[in-house]
Amino acid sequence: METESEPYVRLATLRGLHQVVADLNTARSLADTLQTVADGIVTGLGYELSAVNLVRPDGDLVVAAVAGSAGAEALMAGRVGSRVSWERRLAMADQWGALRFIPYTEGWVLDNDDVPQWHTAGPAPRFPDEWHPMDRLFAPMYTAGAAGGELLGVISVDKPRNGRRPGAWGREALQMYAFQAAIAISNARLRANMQRALVRLEREQQALRASEESFRQAFEYAPSGMAIAEMGGDQHGRLHRTNDALCRLLGRSASQMRRYSFSDLVHPEDIGTLLRTSAEGGRAELRLARRDGTYVWVSLRNSVVADAADGPRFLLTHVEDIEERKRHELQLAHRASHDSLTGLPNSAELRARLSSRLCGRAPGSEPYGAAVTAPYGCLDGFAEVEGVEGPAGASAYGQDGSYAHGFGSEGGPDHAPDCGPDYAPDEFGCGTHDGAYPGHVHAIAPAEDGPDDGTKGLAVLFCDLDGFKAINDRFGHHTGDAVLIEVAHRLSNGVREGDTVARLGGDEFVVLADGLTQADAEDLAVRLRSAILPPIRVDGRAVRVGASFGIGWAGCGMSADEVLHSADQRMYVEKRSRAKAGRRAG
């Protein structure tokens, strides 16, 4: 079963991977991109050495970038390995998904081929997954991002900092990084071609016709979407021209695309992102609508171009499909925030959800209105950002109220949300008060001493299984895991939609349920305990567990740990107050 610290390790790996992937898009040239790819392996993925081997026009691979060792760079940079030798390496290697690994026991046959390398001899590994100096790990890069495309290059890595061969999580991170590196290198080449075309359009008036043809071909046949929009005038923001790749991506013909601006196609929740994207050099990641009503994640990158030296200006937008990358990011985020055995939110996610409902100001002490209760996790109103202004040149709007970015049609929001005199502007256009944001609904803990007065609050039910350890010890972890999965299923089926059931670890679960009175919470605990009691069949054997519940209440002014500790203590009080026979179901 997963250790409690593993989700935090995964979150750290995810943050590092996101950072180095983001750095790939900041390089200005192909050479900078290649070096950034090599540096990202060392700074973000835990290896001491890396090299990027790029396929040349003649098919051979040249070492285009090295990171981690000046000596290795002096030895390898600029050297060429034949395509035949590289294909031999990739063919004989073990397949780790899209990665290729050659253990030291088999790699000795490659010592004398013409591929540049820095490997040295070393002692035999002391344990099975220890990294050996002669181990070789490669991450092939393809033009289409997958093995079905043309080989673009190969990333070589060596010397993991932890001294071990990468596990499943490390392999997936390296594989995703190679996928993104291939896209970044392909885009760097595309940008270089586009920049050369733009320079010719501006500086070579006498060869304008040839330059326009070059631009047309680069635009029409670009592998990713491209669009040209009007800037200024009555048709400001209207799409003037789109390439086949963008039309295919959005499922619309070129004639249909000319009826829209990007602001007509963007997802309502992403309109604020679009409006803050500047025309010159602006970048944004958002969702655009397809013809069938679905949305696709894209990356937009803007440039301003002129039809002639003194002619009208247009907005050139590069639209890259990042749906696959976003899907992988969501999968990684889900794995980092959910228990791998039961699929329930884990301890970190539980604390995050609980903290989102709590602020530092106790109810009744705030100066801006009475506290009320609402369903757990309700944060309506933060899906849209209206009228955000910024510095000149980077604003979502021009000084005359028009869209400076060139995405929108005429008109648009011209006001900021009114948050009251007590708030200083922040990223939402409003400020904060001791962790309470505008629209925040205070969580109020009902009075636990005395009769139930009908006050509704956020109930925290701490559940500990009775008799689980005996089942685990007697029948093994396989049976114990099956019991935990079934208990998680029964708890999830016993709560309302919108309530949270999380696994803290071991045989401990927590339920968050908002809008309950004391009587409601006690009834819920009884129902959940009754749902757990029926026998659980595992491999033809019926086993039973019981459950002890402690009911705590979350209130603003408390921390998530304080709330969970209170519910935990009440669970132990409840467990001790019942006879052992009553606690354990069998």
Automatic annotation (TrEMBL):
Ranges for domain PAC: 282-334
EC code = 2.7.7.65
Swiss-Prot/TrEMBL keywords: Coiled coil, Nucleotidyltransferase, Transferase
For this UniProt entry, which segments traverse the membrane? none
Q: What general EC class does the enzyme of this chain belong to?
A: transferase
Which residues does the UniProt record annotate as the domain GGDEF? 456-586
User: In terms of domain of life, where is this protein from?
Assistant: Bacteria
Concerning InterPro entries, the annotation shows: Biofilm_reg_signaling, GAF, GAF-like_dom_sf, GGDEF_dom, Nucleotide_cyclase, PAC, PAS, PAS-assoc_C
| Keyword Transferase on entry | yes
Q: Which GO terms describe its molecular function?
A: diguanylate cyclase activity
What region holds the PAS domain? Answer: 211-293
Look up the coiled coil feature and give its residue ranges: 187-214
- What protein name applies here? Diguanylate cyclase CdgB
- Origin organism is Streptomyces roseoverticillatus
Q: What gene name is listed for this protein?
A: cdgB
